[in-house]
Amino acid sequence: SYVDQKVSVIMNDGRLVVGTLRGLDQTTNIIMQGCQERIFSEDEGVEVVELGLYMIRGDNIAVIGLVDENKDKELDLENLRGIPLPPLKH
Amino acid sequence: MLFYSFFKTQVGQQVTVELKNDLAIQGTLESVDQFLNFKLKDISVVDEERYPHMISVKNCFIRGSVVRYVQLSPPTVDTALLQDAARREAQSTQQQQQQSKPPTAATNTTAIATATGSVS
Fold first, then answer.
1. Position A47 pLDDT exceeds 90
2. Which of B8, B31, B61, B105 is deepest in the core (most CB within 10 A)?
3. Cα Rg for chain B, rounded, in angstroms?
4. Is A29 part of any domain?
5. For residue B33, what is the nearest residue in chain A, using CA coordinates?
C-alpha cells in the first residue's frame, strides 16, 4: 500500500502532482497532503506550485507512482528539462 | 473475468504498458485487479529522455481505464489455453442470453388477449 508515502500522480490532462498519499477508495479517488504540482518545460527548469491538501477524483487519475525519497532529493529540478505530458486520448 | 485471470498468470513477468497519453512504462507485473488496474515493480519509462516525470519512481499503480496496450512476452503466453477459455466464456455468455431472452411478439399478444378476455 502507498498510504502515508510520497507519491507522484499523473493525471488525465497530463499534469504531475507530488504529495503524501493519505487515503484512497475503490474508484481510486485520493487524498494527498502537501501537494506540489511539477510543471515541465523544454526551455526552463521545472516549475513547482504548492497546492496543499487535495482530493483528486479517480476519473482523472492515470498513474500513481511511489516516489523513492532518496532519488527524489537528488533531482536537480532547476536543470531538468522535458516536454509536458500529453493529455489522454481515448 | 477472463482477462483478469489471464493477467494473474502473467504476475512476475516483464510487461510494457502503453497508456492512452502515449506514455509507455516497462516493469515487472506485481498485481492486477478486477478493473484491470496494474501495479508494476522496478519500472523504467520507455523513451525516458522525453518524459523525465517518473525518474524517482520505482513502483507504480496504473489505472485500468488509461491503458491502451499491454505488451507481453510471447513465450509466456499459452495461446491455446486462452483460446479455449475464450470459447468457454463465449458459450456461457450465449447460454445466459438465451435464458434471459425477452418474450417475443407472438407470446405478448396471446397474453394480452387472455387478460382482456378474463376482465369482460
1. no
2. B61
3. 24
4. yes
5. A26
